[in-house]
């Protein structure tokens, strides 16, 4: 297997490191934890309506930012495949997009003419240039971040 290494038999050493969110722990359930594709930025989000970012170094794990969404307990948060944005959703007919480059949050939705009471469950995938495929209750939606457009597939 070229390019893959195997764990050799023997003793495995480990060390307890500082909790990733030690500088700003959540006071409620955390529903999402995800590393950015660069491997050093971690997001956490939960029912306390806060999205937190930490710079992970294993020693101090500095808090970079905390964002509060006053109308949305966060059920799911995920970096987009290119890592430039974060999608945030809860049990609402809308969701949020946080642009990490512009430091701007946009509210998307609700879907006009649809019966969904929640857009809390989704998976993001890179399809075409910058489109994401989002799924909720068996229905697929295209979300195009540049146009901030959500449409049924």
Q: Characterize the overall form.
A: globular
CATH topology: Methylamine Dehydrogenase, Chain H
The order of strands across the largest sheet is: 1-2-3-4
Count of separate DSSP helical elements: 0
CATH class: Mainly Beta
Give the tally of structural domains: 1
Structural class: mainly beta
Helix content: under 10%
Measured between the Cα atoms of the first and last residue, the distance is: 39 Å
In CATH, the homologous superfamily goes by the name YVTN repeat-like/Quinoprotein amine dehydrogenase
Could you tell me the strand content as a percent range?
Answer: 35-45%
Rg estimate, integer Å: 18 Å
* Stretches with pLDDT under 50, minimum 5 residues: none
SSE sequence, one letter per element: EEEEEEEEEEEE
Query: Tell me about the biggest sheet?
Result: 4 strands, antiparallel
Instruction: Indicate the mean pLDDT.
Output: 84
Number of E strands: 12
CATH architecture group name: 7 Propeller
Can you describe this structure?
The model has no long low-confidence stretch (mean pLDDT 84). A hairpin with a 3-residue loop joins strand 2 and strand 3. The protein is mostly beta strands and 153 residues long. The protein has strands spanning 30-35, 41-46, 50-55, 62-68, 76-79, 85-89, 95-99, 104-108, 126-127, 131-136, 139-144, 149-152. The relative contact order is 0.12.
Short description:
By secondary structure, the protein is an all-beta fold. It has strands at 30-35, 41-46, 50-55, 62-68, 76-79, 85-89, 95-99, 104-108, 126-127, 131-136, 139-144, 149-152. The relative contact order is 0.12.
């Amino acid at each position: 297997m070229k390019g893959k290494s195997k764990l050799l038999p023997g003793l495995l050493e480990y060390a307890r490191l500082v909790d990733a969110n030690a500088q700003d722990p959540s006071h409620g359930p955390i529903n999402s934890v995800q590393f950015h594709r660069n491997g050093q930025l971690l997001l956490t989000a939960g029912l306390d309506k806060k999205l937190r970012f930490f710079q992970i170094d294993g020693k101090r794990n500095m808090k970079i930012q905390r964002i509060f969404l006053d109308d949305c307990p966060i059920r799911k948060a995920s970096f987009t495949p290119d890592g430039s944005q974060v999608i945030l959703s809860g049990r609402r007919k809308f969701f949020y997009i946080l642009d990490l480059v512009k430091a701007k949050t946009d509210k998307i939705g609700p879907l006009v003419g649809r019966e969904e009471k929640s857009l809390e469950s989704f998976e993001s995938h890179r399809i075409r240039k910058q489109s994401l495929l989002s799924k909720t209750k068996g229905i697929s939606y295209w979300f195009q971040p540049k146009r901030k457009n959500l449409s049924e597939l």
